[in-house]
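A quick aside before the break. I want you to see a complete sequence-to-structure record at least once, exactly as it would be stored in a machine-readable document. Don't worry about memorizing anything.
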Amino acid sequence: MSVEARERRQPWILLSPALTAITLLLFIPLLFIVVYSFWLRTATGADLAGFYLDNWSEALSDPFYRDILLSTLRIAAITTAVCAMMGYPAAYFIARSRGNKALLLLLLMLPFWISYIIRTMSWINILGVSGAVNWTLVNLGLVSEPIQMLYNETTVILGLVHFLLPFMVLNVYVALEGIDISLEDAACSLGSTRWQAFREVTLPLSLPGLAAGGLLCFVLSAGTYITPLVLGGPTDAMFANLVFEAIITQLNWPLGSALSLMLLAVLGALVLIYNHYLGMGQLMKGLG
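That is the input. The structure line, written in tokens, reads:
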């Protein structure tokens, strides 16, 4: 074998473990889901193998699924907007801190040491009828009886923000950390106020990090099912809950596969649009 041939093969040899893992853990299971989506669930409960479009026809034409999908995207958009408004000031504060960045970043990462499910269920002890907030309000005499604050769309968004806010802060922090602070000083020396320097210099340069955090928050919130399952009411189900219901409760794998691919297509299109305009490099920085 020639030297040139060995050099051409060397990158693929080095990548082979990662490519093997991705193939076995991602592409092959996804292929099974695609195949399942064209099978048919019979009245006897058995799955009929073949190429049937019944599941796709039901998923794409039924207004129930369309409305739940639109509601899911709306909740994800609201969650992302709230995370951006709350996360940007926090990230800016950490990036501009002078001596305690490591401690602040450690505090930011602490929630990841606790299970997502436990963090979500903790809101029941905070906002429940016998939770901390109601106990305080009743004992202070502000209300005569406990207020029902759980099991609605607002608490679902609250739980999602609680879960996703660190992701937004980390992505914005990475972008702000890469901006030379002397640029703001230079703008101020040319007559700008601190607010003008931030608006004209820092904010535009940090927008890729804000967009990366927004994409991450949107995709993760649109694909979650634990938060609406724990904190939402009967009318607050999100699209992932429909997939869970179809596969786990009804054991209808073909329909659940079609619904999951439907959600994957919508979120995948969003990722492709982001990658076309901004690229995935900033997102990888935030995840790293």
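Two observations worth writing down. The chain is about 75% helix and 0% strand. The two ends are 39 Å apart (CA to CA). We'll return to this after the break.
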